[in-house]
């Protein structure tokens, strides 16, 4: 997760204007989108837009404000009012971990908590993404302090609650807090979003047994942490709380706006050169072997052959890979493109650069493929985002996906690894040939999101964890 790095809004500059016009003014929406150069070709969405919080008002520069959560008496986090919370992030980027912590910062600000943010690793050069994210926080009243120095230590000592985000953030305790570590630990909540092997290092997590609690995004990941810390490191996890994530109100707003969805769909499809009736199967994830785009393309190719071999009458099917970055994963990216060329499926496969704005793609595709390999996703937020758009999910039977997708009801699961290639190909054909089933699964997915994967569900879950952690910290302070 730490390596997911920067993604950029990549989209044609017209859509945000259309979208603003369409969405109700009473609530929400989106960042700010500043269109840069404009060069559209039929094979991919082209314009690179950057996120910034600098207000530019003009045709080219559309700023749309994210409204903060309206405080209602029923807000489950309201007991956090006036509490001082220190959030410690290993980095500040557009990847999942830091963005989640920022969401928590805003939820806490929404109920009047005092929130201080520290970023441990910062590039030495000024970075536009960091600048923009920091300003977004400052705008919402979050205080941003340097990670090192007396101010950081004093805040940690004074805070009612300290949230360490990701395993790597543990390094901050020894390098900055030093001899005061034992005083801080009883009020630390450690939020963990990763499960790759290299995070299980004593230098990161040796204080883990002594914190007030750990919060983890899925049961599978929590189990895995319990096993690994015990077996590899000989340490015991603290009280561990599983908190499934929820969709933001902004995302739900678009997902439930049929007019906006239709406009986005037409627009993206036009720029990809696909027709309204064509079926789009998409993986939306940073391109890397762990996310399984290579195996997905193999399945996709097999499904084309199955359709041809059985002479099935289906609309033309396309594979969309959102999350490319030719600069970074060159070898893997090249491998994917070679596969496409060798098998002559260029017309059916579309690569799209990394983007933070997934809504236009979710509005345009017909099926989300979540093909993460090995232990799968820790949670996999794109899965609940896709379900909000009434999309069925074809997912690997691993990690958080198994806690989100109900096999046979909201999607179909296949195994990880090579043995999952054929089942995924069959599932692609199943959903391509059976319109009714596809749409029903999408609806069931949406219902599941409404039942348990909304922002308020996440707030409620987080609130009950924070309550317990605060109680423990207070007991500790008075004992
Ligand atoms: C995608 O990203 C690559 C590398 O960052 C860049 O060279 C290319 O122009 C981008 N493509 C589009 C369509 O924006
Ligand atoms: C954890 O270990 C137990 C027994 O040692 C095993 O049954 C379980 O599958 C393991 N869970 C994970 C997620 O590795
Ligand atoms: C998912 O359900 C189908 C039947 O609908 C079954 O054939 C398949 O084995 C299940 N897959 C997993 C991974 O549970």
From TrEMBL:
<dbReference type="Pfam" id="PF00534">
    <property type="entry name" value="Glycos_transf_1"/>
</dbReference>
<keyword id="KW-0328">Glycosyltransferase</keyword>
<dbReference type="GO" id="GO:0016757">
    <property type="term" value="F:glycosyltransferase activity"/>
</dbReference>
<feature type="domain" description="Glycosyl transferase family 1">
    <location>
        <begin position="266"/>
        <end position="448"/>
    </location>
</feature>
<dbReference type="InterPro" id="IPR041693">
    <property type="entry name" value="Glyco_trans_4_5"/>
</dbReference>
<dbReference type="InterPro" id="IPR001296">
    <property type="entry name" value="Glyco_trans_1"/>
</dbReference>
<keyword id="KW-0808">Transferase</keyword>
<dbReference type="Pfam" id="PF16994">
    <property type="entry name" value="Glyco_trans_4_5"/>
</dbReference>
<protein>
    <recommendedName>
        <fullName>Glycosyl transferase family 1 domain-containing protein</fullName>
    </recommendedName>
</protein>
């Amino acid at each position: 997760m730490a390596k997911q790095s920067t993604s950029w809004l990549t989209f044609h500059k017209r859509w945000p204007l259309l979208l603003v016009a369409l969405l109700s003014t009473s609530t929400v929406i989106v960042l700010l989108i500043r269109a840069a150069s404009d060069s559209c070709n039929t094979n991919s969405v082209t314009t690179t837009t950057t996120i910034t919080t600098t207000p530019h008002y003009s045709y080219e520069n559309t700023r749309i404000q994210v409204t903060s959560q309206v405080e209602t008496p029923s807000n489950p986090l309201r007991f956090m009012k006036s509490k001082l919370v220190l959030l410690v992030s290993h980095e500040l980027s557009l990847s999942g971990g830091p963005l989640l912590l920022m969401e928590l910062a805003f939820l806490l600000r929404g109920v009047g908590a005092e929130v201080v943010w520290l970023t441990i690793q910062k590039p030495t050069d000024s970075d536009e993404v960091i600048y923009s994210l920091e300003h977004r926080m400052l705008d919402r009243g979050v205080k941003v302090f340097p990670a090192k120095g007396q101010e950081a230590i004093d805040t940690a000592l004074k805070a009612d609650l300290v949230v360490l985000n990701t395993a790597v953030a543990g390094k901050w305790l020894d390098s900055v807090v030093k001899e005061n570590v034992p005083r801080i630990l009883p009020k630390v909540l450690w939020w963990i979003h990763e499960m790759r092997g290299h995070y299980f290092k004593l230098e990161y997590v040796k204080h883990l047994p002594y914190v007030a609690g750990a919060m983890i995004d899925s049961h599978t990941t929590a189990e895995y942490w319990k096993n690994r810390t015990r077996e590899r490191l000989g340490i015991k996890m603290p009280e561990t709380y599983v908190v499934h994530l929820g969709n933001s109100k902004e995302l739900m707003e678009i997902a439930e706006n049929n007019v906006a969805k239709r406009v986005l769909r037409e627009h993206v499809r036009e720029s990809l050169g696909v027709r309204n009736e064509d079926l789009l199967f998409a993986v939306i994830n940073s391109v890397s072997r762990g996310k399984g785009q290579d195996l997905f393309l193999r399945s996709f190719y097999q499904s084309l052959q199955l359709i041809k071999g059985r002479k099935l009458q289906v609309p033309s099917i396309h594979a969309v890979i959102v999350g490319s970055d030719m600069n970074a994963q060159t070898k893997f990216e090249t491998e994917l493109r070679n596969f496409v060329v060798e098998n002559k499926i260029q017309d059916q496969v579309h690569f799209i650069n990394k983007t933070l704005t997934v809504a236009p793609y979710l509005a345009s595709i017909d099926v989300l493929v979540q093909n993460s390999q090995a232990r799968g996703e820790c949670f996999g937020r794109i899965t609940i985002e896709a379900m909000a758009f009434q999309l069925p999910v074809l997912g690997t039977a691993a990690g958080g996906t198994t806690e989100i997708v109900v096999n046979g009801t909201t999607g179909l699961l296949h195994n990880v690894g090579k043995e999952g290639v054929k089942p995924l190909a069959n599932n692609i054909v199943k959903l391509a040939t059976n319109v009714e089933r596809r749409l029903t699964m999408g609806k069931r997915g949406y219902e599941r999101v409404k039942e348990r994967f909304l922002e308020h569900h996440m707030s409620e879950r987080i609130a009950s964890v924070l309550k317990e952690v605060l109680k423990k910290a207070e007991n500790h302070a008075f004992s």
